[in-house]
């Protein structure tokens, strides 16, 4: 009699563990994915596509959106605040490219 009770508890525990595993797997599959970033470095000469990727905007974005994106990225990467001067130069170049300003010359 005792072995039947133990066997029943074991089957119940296995079923409960299986149900929990299925729920965890379902939550994992439906969880939002992290944003995938562009793999690769900077192009030798910046294009409008690359400039848009740097600022996280479309190539056809308006001037205000480009300026807002530029400001947000520069706040995080400004050389005076511990950021990279190379990245700051690329962000400025991207802004100028999308706004149609004169091409900036790189100091690097």
What is the topology?
Blueprint: H1 2-30, H2 48-55, H3 63-77, H4 85-99
Helix pairs in contact: 2-4, 3-4
Characterize the structure shown.
The chain starts with a helix and ends in a 9-residue tail after the last helix. It contains four helices and no strands. The chain has two domains: 31 residues; 52 residues, Helix Hairpins (Orthogonal Bundle), CATH 1.10.287. α2 crosses α4 and α3 runs antiparallel to α4. The relative contact order is 0.10. 62% of the residues lie in helices and 0% in strands. The protein is rod-shaped, with a radius of gyration of 26 Å. The protein is mostly helical and 108 residues long.
Order of helices and strands: HHHH
What is the C-level CATH assignment of the largest domain?
Answer: Mainly Alpha
Proportion in β-strands: under 5%
Largest sheet: none
**CATH architectural name of the largest domain:** Orthogonal Bundle
* Oligomer class: single chain
Query: Which class do the helix and strand fractions yield?
Result: mainly alpha
Shape: rod-shaped
Kindly state the number of beta strands: 0
Supply the number of structural domains. Answer: 2
Q: Any idea what the CATH superfamily of the largest domain is called?
A: DnaJ domain
InterPro entries: DnaJ_domain (IPR001623), J_dom_sf (IPR036869)
Domain J: 50-108
Subcellular location: Mitochondrion inner membrane
Keywords: Membrane, Mitochondrion, Mitochondrion inner membrane, Transmembrane, Transmembrane helix
């Amino acid at each position: 009699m005792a072995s039947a009770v133990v066997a029943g508890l074991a089957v119940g525990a296995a079923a409960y563990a299986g149900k929990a595993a299925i729920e965890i797997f379902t939550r994992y599959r439906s969880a939002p994915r992290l944003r995938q970033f562009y793999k690769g470095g900077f192009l030798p000469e910046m294009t409008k596509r690359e400039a848009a990727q740097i600022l996280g905007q479309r190539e056809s974005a308006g001037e205000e959106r480009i300026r807002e994106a530029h400001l947000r990225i520069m706040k995080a990467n400004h050389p005076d605040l511990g950021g990279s001067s190379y990245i700051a130069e690329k962000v400025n170049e991207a802004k100028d490219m999308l706004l149609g300003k004169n091409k900036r010359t790189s100091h690097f």
